[in-house]
Amino acid sequence: MSKGKPSQAEPAACRLYLVTPPVLEPAAFAPRLIEALDAGDVACVQLRLKNCSDDDVRRACDALRPIAQERDVAFILNDSPRLAREMGCDGVHVGQTDTPYRDARKIMGNDAIVGVTCHDSRHLAMVAGEEGADYVAFGAFFPTATKIAEHHAEPDLLRWWAELMEVPCVAIGGITAANCAPLVAAGADFLAVVSAVWDHPGGPGAGVAAMNAAIAAAPTDWVATKTDGTDAG
């Protein structure tokens, strides 16, 4: 994932947006992250820790950020733009109850990635896109064990956004290799995954490989719509 809008000359392939488990020990997790990133294409890693101190976040950034950046994978911190800038992260992801987008942008600067959670709201997404967000995140599309989902999104939301806006969109919430095809077909630029990779029985490397294989095998309704102007249904 790089800052800026993707070229519309050719529809970009959907890619993985890897989110960390909410609780982890950096030293023990580092080899798992290496395995995941070395197993196939990953656009970015979001460090999303819950109920931890700023120092815990700093230690995790110190251990994990270089692993991602050495592989040209963007490293994004959840919730805290000040810590993201301090720790040399490539960007920050903010929710609707976190630092407002405009404040996050001022803190991070124009060259950083700033993404915004928009739940299932077209209005929130339009506002974020017009203000300059580098991506918007929609969800949850499926039930998830990692976070209580107060909002439910449908694939049609992705299709609407992809037809209207150039700003990339991320689909999140319970996404697995078995259920991701409709999201890819609808035009998701990125699939945010947690359990599908970290809880995969074959390990995180197998999880990444399985997700990328499922993305590659998914129907290409959106690509057909963009390239020939027809509705592939």
Shape: globular
Question: What is the CATH architecture assignment?
Answer: Alpha-Beta Barrel
Gyration radius (Cα, Å) is 17 Å
Instruction: Indicate the low-confidence ranges by residue numbers.
Output: 4-11, 223-233
Strand fraction equals 15-25%
Q: State the end-to-end CA separation.
A: 28 Å
Describe this structure in words.
InterPro entries: Aldolase_TIM, ThiamineP_synth_sf, ThiamineP_synth_TenI, TMP_synthase. Condenses 4-methyl-5-(beta-hydroxyethyl)thiazole monophosphate (THZ-P) and 2-methyl-4-amino-5-hydroxymethyl pyrimidine pyrophosphate (HMP-PP) to form thiamine monophosphate (TMP). This protein is of the alpha/beta class and 233 residues long. The radius of gyration is 17 Å and the shape is globular. Strand 5 (113-119), helix 5 (122-131) and strand 6 (135-139) form a beta-alpha-beta unit. It is 40% helix and 16% strand. Helix 1 (26-37) packs parallel to helix 2 and helix 1 (26-37) runs parallel beside helix 9. Mean pLDDT is 91; it is low at 4-11 and 223-233. It has one domain: Aldolase class I (TIM Barrel, Alpha-Beta Barrel), CATH 3.20.20.70.
Care to give the gist of this entry?
By secondary structure, this protein is an alpha/beta fold. Helices cover 40% and strands 16% of the residues.
Q: Which short descriptors sum up this protein?
A:
thiamine-phosphate diphosphorylase activity, ThiamineP_synth_TenI, disordered C terminus, globular, 8 strands, thiamine biosynthesis, 40% helix, 233 residues, alpha/beta, eight-stranded parallel beta barrel, 10 helices, metal-binding, TIM Barrel
